Amino acid sequence: MSEKMSKPINSEEAFERFFRSLKILNRPPRLSNLPNVVIKKIIKKCELRDLLALRNVSKHFRNVVDARVKYNGIKVSCRRDHVLIELRYRGGFSRYVVYAGVDWNSEVVFSNIAYKSEYTPDRTVAISVGKECEVIKSEDYEKMAFFDLAIVLKNPKIEVGCFTFEYYVEKANMPITVQDAESSKRFYEKMRTLLSSLNHKLLVSKVKLVVEDPDGVLAILPYVVPVFLQEIEINSEVSTNSWQNQVKIERIVNLEQWMKVKDILKTKNTFEFFPMEHLVHFERFRIYQSFSCPRTNTG
């Protein structure tokens, strides 16, 4: 606890003063007696994996922790050599945690940020690792990243404005290799396993996915609360033949989560694969399609 507070209790004399201040209360000093402002400071400085333990300290701690599990956004960005988890709390505070191998040594990571205009594609921004990110290195960093993410999502009272899950190559406009496609499928399967292990569905207003095929959508969309979901966004860097699998497309459009969304559907390079009769319940669309122009021989 001392390590998490802004002014650590680093001497016996300081601890005695702290203990006497607690004795002002007309009951034995306990962790559950701590003021909310102190608990909030502790929570803010805790690692993700500590939050579940804090919920089990007392009913008081659980109430304070649960009051902070309403996120503007949770984003999981899986890359070739690291995983970036972004937590955007209501109130403007954001937290970035990078999970990477023990030999990983980069000064920046990249995140895709939506413009304020819903009609403009995302832009890629660089985030300073030393100044803005917490870095956790491990030989099995993928396992650690999904373990910590599970701790966040296990809270049954969690509410998320926008849940984003994506696999990107490191730089824009880089080609997707066979290895990238396999990595994307592996990460989405990890996410499916995590969500299916929960004893509740996620309260999410918007789901945003960057996927290579329908399997990625089926890995996440079934695990959100249907009536709470207001917006679906399905993006693919390129249109591939995998989107022509009508059996899997039918599975998507017949999900309760898909059928009960009334507000908006956003797509990138995927709109043409969804049958029109399964789109009429959406009030709005945002459709982005990329085109490749053949090179001309000027010589």
Describe this protein with a few key phrases.
299 residues; disordered C terminus; globular; alpha/beta; two-stranded antiparallel ribbon; 10 helices; single chain; 2 domains; nine-stranded mixed β-sheet; 24% strand
Question: What would you say this structure looks like, in words?
Answer:
A hairpin with a 3-residue loop joins strand 1 and strand 2. Helix content is 32%, strand content 24%. The strands form two sheets. A nine-stranded mixed sheet has the order 6-3-2-1-7-8-9-10-11. It has a two-stranded antiparallel ribbon with strand order 4-5. Helix 3 packs parallel to helix 6, helix 7 runs parallel beside helix 8 and helix 8 runs parallel beside helix 9. By secondary structure, it is an alpha/beta fold. The N and C termini lie far apart (71 Å). It contains ten helices and eleven strands. The protein has two domains: 65 residues, no CATH class; 220 residues, no CATH class. This is F-box domain-containing protein.
Structural class: alpha/beta
Assess the beta-strand content as a share of residues: 15-25%
How many beta-strand runs? Answer: 11
The succession of helices and strands, N to C, reads HHHHEEEEEHEHEHEHEHHEE
Give the distance, in angstroms, between the N- and C-terminal Cα atoms: 71 Å
Q: Report the total helices.
A: 10
Helix content: 25-40%
> Which strand order do you get reading across the main beta sheet?
6-3-2-1-7-8-9-10-11
Radius of gyration (Å): 22 Å
- Report the principal-axis shape: globular
Uncertain spans: 294-299
The main β sheet shows up as: 9 strands, mixed
Number of domains: 2
| Mean pLDDT over all positions | 81
InterPro entries: DUF38/FTH_CAE_spp, F-box-like_dom_sf, F-box_dom, FB224
Domain F-box: 28-74
GO biological process, one term: innate immune response
Pfam families: F-box (PF00646), FTH (PF01827)
